[in-house]
Model the fold of this input.
Amino acid sequence: MTTGRIVIIGAGQAGASAAMKLRALGHRGPLVMVGDETAPPYQRPPLSKKYLLGEMAMDRLLLRPEAFWAEQQIDLRLGQPVLSINRSAQEVRLGDDVLRYDTLVLATGAEPRRVPAAIGGDLPGVHVVRRVADIDALAPEMTPGRRLLVVGGGYIGLEAAAVARKLGLEVTVIEAAPRILGRVAAPETADFIRALHRRHEVEIIEGVGLDRLLGDTRLTGARLADGRQIAASLAVVGIGVEPSAGLAAAAGLPVAGGVVVDAFGRTADPAIWAAGDCTLLPFRGHQLRLESVQNAIDQAEAVAANILGAARPYHPKPWFWSDQYDLKLQIAGLNLGHDRVVIRPGPTPSHWYFAGDTLLAVDALGDARAYMIGKRLIEAGRSPDPAMLADPAMDLKSLL
Done:
């Protein structure tokens, strides 16, 4: 068990989870967590939902009260971007300050992709959704009657569209791919979500990319790749994220669409570990990134235990969720490599992904029971008969 100084770069969900777990497991040495935001560690999922709607105050977003970190003797340094890592000296540089480490944890997260400035991405009125400062800038503009353009038909963009309709804005979503949710969900799930948004009078344009955002001193609209022009007074860009792996790359660590880690969360440098959205981790013979709160927590806690000598590989149990109007979409597992989707019909259907006879994942659309049962089956490595799933008369609980 280490008693040396552990430095964590990143004060988001993964960084905070690692710090808390290190203390809970008995690390009594110096523990420093460095964040580039001025706010203490907070939850991100409510930002694009309840916080944007004004239904949740900042103090309710906090993962722990501010006093907690001092009580746990966690040296929390906020508003201090890390400039570089010196692996040979085992130091990180923060402006004029230098921190020495015995063990370093990278929990740097990810940053939203932006529309290039050359095509209007830096116009006032163009927003991304990732940090509390992003929402604080966006929220005052979300006023009834205005026209919102959402660039990107993934979960973030569609959640923003749903919130905007609740607030009384006119909304257009554009998606360059042939359909919304193309990277993350089956056509059946996308069809259900599309119909839901159209019932709420959201215009969805698929298969057409953005040519440029329009405006001189402020956003006034967009021109699409097919020449159409759309009026808009503000825009939310939801075209995915990029892992914040620049520090790792500059320090000479392997980076390949994320900081490369082994099954224990260790990088190529035995003194440096990584967790959360910034990492590329092994899963079922693949190397991938899992962008989810649950992975950030679970992987960070596994890394904390392994730093202290547990030597246990991390086996992700992916699950995700998205709120769209009054519908909660819950996803268990990963549909990577599926070759068919079994639909369990009902007022709120569920979609079950199989590779051959093996259950990989389930999308539960407002059906918490299907989600919980699917999650338990996947985690137990059990695969039900697809024909039974498709029979609405069959009680799902009998599968357990």
User: Anything to note?
Assistant: The two ends are 40 Å apart (CA to CA). The chain has a mean pLDDT of 95. The longest helix spans residues 293-307.
